[in-house]
Amino acid sequence: MNDAVCALGICKGFNTLFRRRKEVLKDINLLIDGEEIFGILGPNGSGKTTLLSIFSTLIYPDRGELTILGIDARRNTHEVRKHINISTG
């Protein structure tokens, strides 16, 4: 089956209150097969929400490539959103 998620070199940073840049995600590479069920686990502040926000096209990565179900997530955000559902809690 095709890859559900293919993330290559995903990086994301945010400016802090004192104009310093805080890198939240650094060179994330992730390949998830279409038949897999997966979860994202980690301590508070590790970038889980940021990564899922990028996967769902709510925010864009600073660098890297991302395809969801073979769709370029940066170029076709509307098409990706037709296939995405996120549940938190």
**CATH architecture descriptor:** 3-Layer(aba) Sandwich
- The helix count comes to 2
Query: Would you tell me the overall average pLDDT?
Result: 91
Number of separate structural domains: 1
**What is the string of helix and strand elements?**
EEHEEH
CATH homologous superfamily annotation: P-loop containing nucleotide triphosphate hydrolases
Q: Any idea of the CATH class?
A: Alpha Beta
- The amount of beta strand, in percent, is 35-45%
Give a quick account of the main beta sheet: strands, pairing sense, barrel closure: 4 strands, antiparallel
Instruction: Report strand order across the widest sheet.
Output: 2-1-3-4
- The radius of gyration computed from the alpha-carbon positions, rounded to a whole number of angstroms, is 13 Å
Q: Helicity, in percent?
A: 10-25%
Structure classification: mainly beta
CATH topology heading: Rossmann fold
How would you describe the shape? globular
**Which regions have little confidence, pLDDT < 50, spanning 5+ residues?**
none
The tally of beta strands, per DSSP, is: 4
